[in-house]
Specification:
- The chain has about 400 residues and is of the alpha+beta class.
- It has three domains: about 5-60, no CATH class; about 75-125 and about 240-400, 3-hydroxy-3-methylglutaryl-coenzyme A Reductase, Chain A, domain 2 (Alpha-Beta Complex); about 130-220, Alpha-Beta Plaits (2-Layer Sandwich), CATH 3.30.70.420.
- Helix content is about 40%, strand content about 20%.
- Strands 1, 2, 3, 4, 5, 6, 7, 8, 9 and 10 form a ten-stranded mixed sheet that branches.
- α1 crosses α2 (about 25-40), α9 crosses α13 and α10 runs antiparallel to α13.
- It is globular and about 75 Å long.
- The termini are far apart.
Amino acid sequence: MTDPASLADRVQEGELRIHELEAEVDFDTAAEARRLLVERETDADLEAIGDYAFPAERAEPNIENMIGAAQVPMGVVGPVSVSGGAADGEHYLPLATTEGALLASVNRGLSVIRSADGADARVTKNGMTRAPVFRVDGVAEAAETVEWVENNIDSLREAAESTTSHGELLGVEPYVVGDSVYLRFAYDTKDAMGMNMATIATEAACEVVSEETPASLVALSGNLCSDKKPAAINAVEGRGRSVTADVVIPGELVEDRLHTTAEAIVEANTRKNLVGSAKAGSLGFNAHAANVVGAAFLATGQDEAQVVEGANAITTMDARSSGDLYASVSLASLEVGTVGGGTKLPTQSEALEVLGLRGGGDPAGSNADALAEIIAVAALAGELSLLAALASNHLASAHEDLGR
């Protein structure tokens, strides 16, 4: 019995487990059987969830117990005009979101940036981290372990890099807390976001540490990485790509297109993004950078949980003596890739094609660098547009005009 209804019956009767369906039938039939089961159990109608546009087997590396797809509206902003270390020229950027007015706001900022001859952007640091935690008897053994690690980086590099044909170990930073030793490994993962690569490589290096020092591995991740959590270490040291974008907007453009002044935007940024964020104890000192990061992540197949780190951004605004506005956004820990993970899914792969960044770059790592730079310029555009709307008291009216 391999039709979806019969399969759903067998799961309900305990004859099959819900995760075993792909062993009985093809992936799409398995997904249909699960939808039928869920519809029976919940009285929900899953017609839209089941109306997906790619073979279910394409998603096999990315999800378990598939029933369909979550369809988030996708739009495009741009062109994003950027002069970067890896990205150059104009690029359309797909963004997927349910927040009305977001793309309109980003497009307004991008239009102003283009009129100001584009923005500069650079990846200033690159390193995907994994930080295991080891147990020692006390501070003497901790010091012995740290000394061995510092004197044997080449041995750790050899072990780590034996697991990957692409990743490179950049360094290991030790931290000691009582009888715990944390080693923060950092890798250049080229065009991959690289979390799995870093994890596998670090496991191999940990075996060497355990053999050669008094330390015993407790957990491959000790949260000093720090992955998918708000963490000051990522804001200070960076994780993934640290990228900055900036632009100088002529004063007349600020007045004509943003309907305010450089001085008003600077004041709004200082009082809102800097002082307000400091008072709130925020790790991000920006208006809404995560809006653009999150929408870009969904569109291009990034790990959406890492928007947490992507919100580690500082926006600065400065009124120049000429009346011009200097604007920048610095994202400390933007974790992006153009190969692996969700980037291989059909929709997300097409979005990367729009950017001209699908797959590995030449040289290796250049595509992921370019993606980081383009996202940074789009985030800068969003910061400019929102701060201008706040400075001119147009935020609420803009949402009203768009009916959102």
